[in-house]
Design a protein that fits this description.
The structure holds 2 protein chains of 2 kinds.
Chain A: H1 6-25, H2 43-66, H3 74-90, H4 95-117, H5 122-143, H6 145-148, E1 154-155, E2 174-175, E3 178-179, E4 183-188, E5 191-196, H7 197-218, H8 220-230, H9 232-236, H10 242-267, E6 270-271, H11 278-291, H12 298-314, H13 318-324, H14 330-343, H15 348-362, H16 366-377
Antiparallel strand pairs in A: 1-6, 2-3, 4-5
Chain B: E1 4-13, E2 16-26, E3 31-35, H1 42-49, E4 57-62, E5 65-66, H2 72-78, E6 80-83, H3 95-108, H4 123-135, H5 151-164, E7 169-173, H6 181-197, E8 201-205, H7 209-215, E9 218-223, E10 226-231, H8 233-238, H9 240-245
Parallel strand pairs in B: 3-8, 3-9, 6-7, 7-8
Antiparallel strand pairs in B: 1-2, 1-4, 4-5, 9-10
Helix pairs in contact in B: 3-4, 3-5, 4-5
Classes of the chains: A mainly alpha, B alpha/beta.
Amino acid sequence: MLGLNRKDTAILLVVAALAIFAPIILNLFPARSELAFFNAGYPDLMQRFVIFGIFAIGFNILFGLTGYLSFGHAAFLGVGSYAAVWMFKLLNYNVVPAILLSIVVAGLFSVVIGWISLRRSGIYFSILTLAFAEMSYRLAYSVLTPLTNGETGLQVYTDDPQVLMQAGGHIVPHLFGLEMRAREVIDVGPWQFVFPVGYYLCAILMLVSFYISIRIFRSPFGLMLRAIKSNQTRMTYTGLNPKPYTLAAFVISGMYAGLAGGLLASMDPLAGAERMQWTASGEVVIMTILGGAGTLIGPILGAGTIKYLENVFSKMNEGLLHKWFAFLPDWVESPVIWVVSKFTGEGWHLMLGGLFMLVIIALPGGLVEGGQRIMRLFGRKPKAETRTSTEPAE
Amino acid sequence: MGILEVKNVNKRFGGLKALSEVNLSIAENSVHAIIGPNGAGKSTLLNVLVGKLIPDTGSVLFDGQSVLGRTPYEINQMGISRVFQTPEIFGDLSVMENMMIACFAKRDGAFTMQAIGSMMKERDIVEKAEQMLDSMNLADKRGMHSASMSRGDKRRLEIAMCLAQEPRLLLLDEPTAGMARADTNNTIDLLKKIKQDRDITIAIIEHDMHVVFSLAERITVLAQGTPLVEDTPENIKGHPKVREAYLGETQVAA
């Protein structure tokens, strides 16, 4: 189907089904029950799942295929967000020009950063990208205040030009009149399912991005990218120039990041400099590795897992812990809560760090490898995913 | 005039004169061996030929065109392929994928952006890769992870990849280093067959005299960065200067 072989079509269909039915799958527990705490089917979170999915899919084209580890991809995400908000300020709240411009601007920005950073490989490349992203963050935070509105963040004001705005036009982001924040709420018995417009726009774009990434993986270009990771010496002595291939991969992944940034701004028309901070760049690295770098579906799994855990663990407060551990005798309960509270709420990053270490040590291939091991355990033939080692390029 | 003309090439590394006044002419469609004791400058010369090193003075002409100042991939696209001492292959990829990369490099040049079409639907590439694997007896290892093959198979794959590019000059850097005698003989037979089947010039750097005397039509002896003699194998064997400089130190296997 669509020029894919049977296995890839199956993967695409599974991801499509998950995306379409996410509002149901993620709200497994009745709305008023105790376990509703673990539900994730509300618009803001579902949008973040797919937006960061797009970010990680793009990052995987660079890191998973060529092995070049960029620590600066959040800069492209941030640039995309700024571009989108500027479109809202100058034209109107339609998301189409905003999303298109965010991809274009991030693409141009990544040509410049990539062209310079790719003069080095391995760890020096990573450090160069990190430095560029940090520079972008600092510039956005202070020097470029007229463009970025500094620490307040860029947002739309009533006195902005908005030249395409008609009287009585929409005052929130919309797709030709369809407001992003509009939603359909369906109650089935005690269950409640929310179907938001914004989420479905993001999901469709995520599926398109995923489809393009599968095509890239299976193309001659994708083969060359894997050749770069495997052996650059053989590549040059086979008459191939690795430079333009790596730069093309860098720019493509930068454009994916720009799309993700544009979507973030389209869901909530605000762009702040902290989106470009190095922790945001680190997050996409963790997502990709946690899911399985170099695999097709890994980045999506990684992005979903991290955003879900972030949501669940960061909202566990001490009150909730007291309720959960109430069955313990007091002298046990206090120390247990003291320990657990360090890993939840504000401290959920500690949890993430631990989980990341566990996966890297036990499952170097990420969640995809975990899935394959389980399949093998049940005597099924594992999916022969085209994944290779996760070491950065030399 | 030969297909490869090296004239007055000098190369210094700090105080060490690695190559001094090297003149070498390799005739088209010949098998030319370059031998010499350790430190004679064989590898330096090879690195000059493929563009990895730029000599201080002198010229290197391939088919009348200078190779100096060109990058290794440009020189490769001119028609010079190199086989390494330790086989350099794409270890993470399958044997078939290795072959296909070489076929793509031949068809599409140093860089082409084909990001959407499926590589398995490039019929001509797939067929050519399969043919090459077949002719090298690697067809049954098609789907194998190439890093997990034996050293002999890796060597054959590397040679196959070079041949897929239809080079006019094939450079081999000690192709039998570290091989058992049986594997060495197989490699000799393979190279003989390659020579028989096509118009190709082969330049070979080798330590193993058995390999050199079984293959070479001309031999250049390099010592201390400068060519000592160049002659046919028969004359080289008996040459007093060569015996003194080189063969005298080694057991002659032939």
